[in-house]
């Protein structure tokens, strides 16, 4: 059996640097570059994406933590000193997306940028970041699913290091981190390829397609996980939110399509 991956990559002056942090930061750098290049193609300023992210990143982390704490309040009410201990885990992606979305809205309004256009630029890169980020969960041995067998995992034709590192708490587990990472990566590729077609997406539809794609996959994958945040009555918070977002995005696409004057997503600007 392959030894379990150590979540700590190395130490600097006695402080452990986690693989999770390295993967997240690497993903942020990559998607920032991609989004910046795309922003130029649609006529935005080169620094718009970076300037917005300087605000969005810290606030998104706060939002992700706040979301998690709210739905785990029974525990944190008894351990208030751990509310700020994010090194121990406890960041919810939906909380980060909500907080980041609010920052994006106010940033675009303040700088007189079309919010839908900015969302269209950012959405595919966010999906790629989520695909990369799930590997941080793998390194932390978290976001896994129900008990399964090694034989089942082998039928998925996974590398042995993944199979053996899904042996958690005495049993092999469903690699739900991998299911979601793969789903998000496929979504990123599909959206980017469709985005290259002239007059395929109308303004705002790339962002709404991202919401449709992510929420659809997350709804089903969330049902396989064992660490879901729960709402009253034992309902999974992320499944409820995913269903609401999917329906909302679908309704918005239908309504906006009725506006014959709504422009198409325009990539006519070139990168110098």
TrEMBL record:
Sequence positions that bind a 1,2-diacyl-sn-glycero-3-phospho-(1'-sn-glycerol): 134
UniProt entry keywords in alphabetical sequence: Cell membrane, Lipoprotein, Membrane, Transferase, Transmembrane, Transmembrane helix
Assigned GO CC terms: plasma membrane
InterPro entries, A to Z: Lgt
Primary location class: membrane
Protein's membrane topology: Multi-pass membrane protein
Cell compartment(s), UniProt: Cell membrane
EC number: 2.5.1.145
GO biological process assignments: lipoprotein biosynthetic process
Lipoprotein is among the record's keywords: yes
Enzyme class: transferase
GO molecular function, one term: phosphatidylglycerol-prolipoprotein diacylglyceryl transferase activity
Function according to Swiss-Prot or TrEMBL: Catalyzes the transfer of the diacylglyceryl group from phosphatidylglycerol to the sulfhydryl group of the N-terminal cysteine of a prolipoprotein, the first step in the formation of mature lipoproteins.
Entries under NCBIfam families matching the protein: lgt
PANTHER family attached to this UniProt entry: PHOSPHATIDYLGLYCEROL--PROLIPOPROTEIN DIACYLGLYCERYL TRANSFERASE (PTHR30589:SF0), PROLIPOPROTEIN DIACYLGLYCERYL TRANSFERASE (PTHR30589)
Designated name of the protein: Phosphatidylglycerol--prolipoprotein diacylglyceryl transferase
Gene of this entry: lgt
């Amino acid at each position: 059996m392959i030894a379990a991956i150590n979540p700590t990559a190395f130490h600097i002056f006695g402080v452990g640097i986690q693989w999770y942090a390295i993967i997240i930061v690497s993903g942020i750098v990559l998607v920032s570059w991609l989004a910046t290049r795309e922003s130029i193609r649609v006529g935005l300023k080169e620094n718009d994406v970076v300037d917005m992210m300087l605000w969005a990143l810290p606030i998104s982390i706060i939002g992700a933590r706040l979301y998690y704490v709210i739905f785990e309040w029974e525990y944190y009410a008894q351990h208030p000193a751990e509310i700020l201990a994010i090194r121990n885990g406890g960041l919810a992606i939906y909380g980060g997306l909500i907080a980041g979305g609010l920052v994006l809205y106010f940033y675009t309004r303040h700088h007189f940028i079309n919010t839908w256009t900015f969302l269209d630029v950012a959405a595919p890169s966010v999906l790629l970041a989520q695909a990369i980020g799930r590997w941080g969960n793998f390194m932390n041995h978290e976001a896994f699913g129900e008990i399964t067998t090694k034989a089942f995992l082998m039928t998925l034709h996974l590398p042995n290091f993944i199979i053996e590192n899904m042996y958690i708490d005495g049993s092999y587990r469903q690699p739900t981190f991998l299911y979601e990472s793969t789903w998000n990566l496929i979504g990123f590729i599909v959206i980017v390829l469709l985005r290259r077609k002239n007059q395929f997406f109308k303004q705002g539809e790339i962002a709404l397609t991202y919401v449709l794609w992510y929420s659809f996959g997350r709804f089903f994958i969330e049902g396989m996980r064992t660490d879901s945040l729960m709402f009253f009555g034992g309902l999974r918070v992320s499944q409820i939110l995913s269903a609401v977002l999917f329906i909302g995005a679908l309704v918005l696409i239908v309504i906006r399509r009725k506006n014959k004057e709504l422009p198409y997503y325009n990539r006519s600007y070139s990168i110098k």
